[in-house]
Design brief:
Blueprint: E1 32-33, E2 39-43, H1 48-60, E3 64-68, H2 74-85, E4 89-92, E5 98-101, E6 115-116, H3 121-132, E7 137-141, H4 152-159, E8 164-168, E9 172-178, E10 187-189, H5 195-205, E11 211-216, H6 223-230, E12 235-239, E13 245-250, E14 259-261, H7 266-278, E15 283-290, H8 297-304, E16 308-317, E17 320-328, H9 349-357, E18 362-365, H10 378-388, E19 392-396, E20 399-403, E21 410-412, E22 415-416, H11 422-431, E23 435-437, E24 440-441, H12 454-461, E25 464-465
Parallel strand pairs: 2-15, 3-14, 6-7, 10-11, 21-23, 22-24
Antiparallel strand pairs: 1-25, 3-5, 4-5, 7-9, 8-9, 11-13, 12-13, 15-17, 16-17, 18-20, 19-20
Helix pairs in contact: 1-2, 1-6, 2-3, 3-4, 3-5, 4-5, 7-9, 7-11, 9-10, 9-11
Length: 472
Amino acid sequence: MPTARGPRLAIAGSGCQKPAAMTAPLPRTLRLTAPRALAGRVAVPGDKSISHRALMLSALAVGTSRVEGLLEGEDVLATAAAMRAMGATIVRGEDGAWTIDGVGVGGLLQPRQALDMGNSGTSTRLLMGLVASHAITATFVGDASLSKRPMARVIEPLSRTGADFTASPGGRLPLMVRGICPAVPIEYRLPVASAQVKSAVLLAGLNTPGITRVIEPVPTRDHSERMLRGFGAELAIETDADGARIISLTGEAELKPQRIVVPGDPSSAAFPCVAALIVPGSDIVIENVGLNPTRAGLYEVLRAMGADIAFADERVVGGEPVADLRVTASALHGIAPDPAIVPSMVDEFPILFVACALAQGRSVLRGLEELRVKESDRIAVMAAGLRAIGATVEELPDGLVVDGTGGERLAGGATVATHLDHRIAMSFAIASLACRLPVTVDDRAPIATSFPGFIGMMEALGAEQSAAGEPA
C-alpha cells in the first residue's frame, strides 16, 4: 500500500479544530496559506448522504441499530433531532458509535414543535417523504439559506400520494406537511436528475400499500436503494429500453435493525485532494473514502485532467466501495466533461472550478443548472469569487468557462462571500493556498454544516491560518 510523507494524522469528523483560548472567540473570517508542501495521512468525516439515510431508516426499523462513523455535522444532527422528535431513541455512545431504537414503519409520532432543519436540504426533502405517508402533521423550518431553496420538486410528487402541503411563497420554507395513511402508491418519472426527490418518493412508499415506482432517466446516487435493501425492504431495479432505471418498492415494509459503518465522504475528501494537487510538492493520503460510482465522478474528471490520484486498499464496507486515496501535486490541464457526469459529482463542482483555475488551458463546464438552486447560486457565487482573486471566468446560464493559469499562482488578496454555503467557504479556503496573497473567506461558520474538522485537518497537513484573517 502506498504511503505519503509525514506522520499519520487521524482526523475525526468533529473536534479537529484547535480549541480557542477561553477568552478569545474564534474569528468569523478565515484565511489559509500553504508555506510548505502538504503532507500526511488524514481521514475525512463520514459520508453525509449515507449518514442521513442511516439515521432515518434505523429510526423506522424495529429494534436497535448501530451506526459507526456517522458524520457529526450540523446537517446530520438536524436529522437526528427530527427523528427523535418523531419518537426514535437516538444516543451517541462514548466510543463515538450511535445507537438508534426505531419505532417501526408507520410508527412515527406527531412532533410537538416545528422541525428545525438548519441548513440541510437533504434532511428536509427526505423527511417530507417520510411524513407524507404517516398520519401526522409536521412543520419544517430552516435558516435563511435553506428558506430560499425550492421544495416544489418534492411537493409535486408527494402531493400525488394524498399528502397535503402548505408552503411559503415559491414552495419554500416554512412549510407544513399533513401526511396521510394509507397513502396512494405512485409511479413517478423524475423530470430532472435528483437523488433527493427519488429518495423522498421511495421513503413515502415505505408506509404505502402497494408498489411505488420511481423512473430516473439519468442515474443519481444510489445510497437509498442500497440501504433500503440492506434494511430488508423489498426493492427491485430494472432498466428499460431507453436506459432509464425503474426502481420499484413494495410498501408496508418491515425494516430490520442493522450495523452500519459509514465510509468517508467523497465530497469532503475533494477539498484536501484538490489542495494537494495545486500546492507544489504535496503528497498526502486520504483514508477510507467512499467511491460509490454514483458519487465518484470528480476523481474521474481530475484524473482526466492529469491528476496523480491512486486508489489503494480497495474494499467494500457495508455494501459501499471504499479506498484510500494517495494524491500528489500534479500539472493539470483544462477539460470539458460530458454533462452526463454531473449527477455523480454535482456537489464537487465548486472545488473543481478552483482546480480548473490553476490548470493549463481552458475548461468548459456545462449542464450545471442544478447548482443555481443549492445552498447558494453556486455558479454565480463561484464566478464572482474567482474573478475577485484573479481568475479568468465566463459565466454561462448552465456553467462556467475557466481559463487556467497553467499552474501559476492566482493573485488572491480579496474577500469572498460565502452566502451561507459551506462548499463555497471551503473551496475558497483551498484556493487561497495557491494565491500570492491570502484569500479571506468572509464567514467560516457554514463549514460546520458538513465538515466541522475541516480547518484542523488542513492545519494537520501543513496549511496555516493567517493572522490577517482576524476580524478588523
